[in-house]
Amino acid sequence: MIGNRITHRMADGVRIPGTWRHAFIYNGGTYFLTDLFIYADGLVDCWELVTLDEFEKKLRSGWVATSLPDGGSASAHHLASWTFGEPDTWLTPELLLAEVRDTVDELNGRPDSTRRCLAAVEMFLTERTEENRSAARAAYLAIPETVRHYALGDMDRKDRPLQVLVTGPGGRFPCRADERVSQEEYDEAVAYFEERRRRLAEAPSRVPADGVVNSFAPAVKLYHSYPQRALEHPDKRCLRNDYPAPITLDDVTYPSVAHAYWAQSVAEPEARISVVTAATGAKAHTLAARATRREGWERIRTAVMARLLRAKYEQHSDLATVLTATGDASLLYDDADSDFWGDNGGRGRNWTGRLLELVRSELLASQARVD
Question: Which end of the chain is least crowded, N or C, by CB within 10 Å?
Fold first, then answer.
C-alpha cells in the first residue's frame, strides 16, 4: 500500500510518481537497510533503476534480501551496524514481487490484486455459480498473503468473511485445511457482503467536485533557445521570457519580458536604462547582475513576473494562442541561471512554468467569458 509515502522522479521532463518501502540489500557480505523506490512506469530503484523482470532477478539472486541469516552483518548507512540474532522475516521473493506489482498497479490507478479479488466476489454475488466462486477463490489466493487480511478494510473481522464466502459451506479454508466452513458461518458471510454492498451503494461519491486532478496533455519542456528576432510563425520558443516580444508597462516599452524583469530588479535609474536598452535578454541579465538589487526584491519578484507575463500575452494575441494551445500540460521551464525560475531537470522550483500555467488559465477563462 502506498499510504503517504509519495515521491517521484523526472524522466524527459515528465514527472513519474512513485513510493518507497524499506528493504535489505545484500552487498559485499553486509545486509544494508535501505529504501526500495517503486515508480508508476514499472521501474524499481534498488541502488539502480531496473525493470520488474530485472527486479525479480535481483530478488532471486538475494541482492534484494527477503531472508536474513542468524549472525549476519547488517548496516543502516552511517547510523548503526549490528548482527542479526534469531531474525524473523515473513517475506519471500514471490511475496515481495507480488506486493511491488500491486504497488505499480495502484500508482497507475489500476485495480491491484485486492480490488481484482473484490470484483470477482461481486461477480459471484451477482451470479452464484461454483465457477464464479472458484474464480473468486483464485483471485483471493492471488493477493499477497502479507496483505490479505486488509482486503475488506474491516479491522474487526479482518478477511474472515471473504475466506468463508470464497470457500463455501463444507469447504476447507485456504491455508487451514483442518477447518471447514459451516452453513451457519457461510450464511453470516453472505449477509455481511450483502450489507456491505448496500453501504457502498449508498455512500456519497468521492469524485472531486471541480474535476480531474491530473492533466491529460503530456508535459511541455521549454528549453533554452536564445531567440534573436521574432519568428514569422511563432512556436513554443515564443514562450521564453527572452523572446523579443515588446511589452509596455507604465508608459515604458521593454524589448522582452526578460528586459522588463531585470530592469525592475535594479535599484539605480541609470543601471535600469542600460538594462532596458540591452541588445538581448541575456545581456540585460548580465548588466542587471552587476548592478545593485532593489531592496526586498526576493519578496516581490514572483508578483512582478506574473504582471509581466500577463502583459506579454495580453499585448500579443498570436503568442497567447501558442500558450493556450498547450492545453493543460505541465510547463517545464529551463533556466540555467536560476533554480527558482527553472525546472532544470526536476531540481528547480519552476516558478516561470507555474506562472505561465496561471496566465494560460486566465486567458482561457477570458475566452470562455467572451464566448
Answer: C
Q: How many angstroms separate the CA atoms of 328 and 322, rounded?
A: 13
User: CB atoms < 10 A from the CB of 195, how many?
Assistant: 10
Across the range 320-326, mean pLDDT stands at: 96
Instruction: Kindly report, residue by residue over 258-308, the tens digit of the pLDDT.
Output: 999 999 999 999 999 999 999 999 999 999 999 999 999 999 999 999 999
204 or 251, higher pLDDT: 251
Question: Has residue 207 got a pLDDT over 80?
Answer: no
DSSP string, 284-336: HHHHHHHSPBPTTHHHHHHHHHHHHHHHHHHH-HHHHHHHHTTTT--EEE--T
- Which residue type sits at 200? L
- Average per-residue pLDDT in the chain? 91
Confidence grade of residue 153 (pLDDT, cut at 50, 70, 90): confident
* SS3 readout for 98-162: HHHHHHHHHHCCCCCHHHHHHHHHHHHHHCCCHHHHHHHHHHHHHCCCCCHHHCCCCCCCCCHHH
Tell me the helix, strand and coil percentages in the chain, rounded to 5: 45, 15, 40
**Cβ burial 308-338 (10 Å sphere, 16+ → b, else e):** bbbbbbeebeebbebbbebeebbbbbbbeee
Q: Which residues contact 206 (CB under 8 A, 6 or more apart)?
A: none
Residue that has been written with the C-alpha cell 500491486 in this structure:
102
